[in-house]
Amino acid sequence: MTLNSNYLHRGKPPWRLNDFLHYDKTFTTSLASELENFFKTNDNSEASIFSIWQAHKTVIRGHLIGRASYLKRKRKKEHMDLLRKLRDTTSAHLLNPTDTQEK
Q1: What are 64-73's contacts with CB under 8 Å, separation 24+?
Q2: In angstroms, rounded to a whole number, what is the distance separating the alpha carbons of residues 53 and 32?
Q3: What is the pLDDT of residues 51-74, one digit of tens each?
Q4: What does the pLDDT look like over 69-83, one tens digit per residue?
Q5: Which of 18-27, 64-73, 82-91 is predicted least confidently?
Q6: DSSP letters of 64-94?
Q7: Considering the entire predicted model, what is its pTM?
Q8: Residue 21 class from Cβ within 10 Å (0-12 exposed, 13-18 middle, 19+ buried)?
Q9: pLDDT at residue 101, as a whole number
């Protein structure tokens, strides 16, 4: 039995929602406020409701991607700070070892 797939993955995978963003109450509140402002600003008869709906999804996605990127940069910075602290502590210990080491 042979299975073949004609699906060729090209480029980046599609964007996926970071589920942990729902737990940040301040972010969800600010996102709701942004959406209210968006619909107040775009509440006119010139654009179709479909266009407004598509645009609001883009606005939400932009805010979600921005917040996820911010949190990722923050985690990376904390990780790098911990690694730097570990490296500094290790090099300080190598230069001046203490007598409390187990033998």
Answers
A1: 64/17, 64/18, 64/21, 64/31, 65/15, 67/21, 67/24, 67/27, 68/18, 68/21, 71/18
A2: 15
A3: 889 999 999 999 999 999 999 999
A4: 999 999 999 999 999
A5: 18-27
A6: HHHHHHHHHHHHHHHHHHHHHHHHHHHHHHH
A7: 0.69
A8: middle
A9: 55
- Tokens read off for 47: 């654009």
Provide the token pair at 17.
């929602």
Q: State the number of CA atoms in the 13 A half-sphere of 103 facing the CB.
A: 3
| Residue 43 CB partners (closer than 8 Å, separation 6+) | none
Q: Taking the CB of residue 94, how many other CB atoms lie within 10 A of it?
A: 8
The separation between CA 4 and the C-alpha centre of its own chain, rounded to angstroms, equals 35
User: Tokens standing for 91?
Assistant: 């090099």
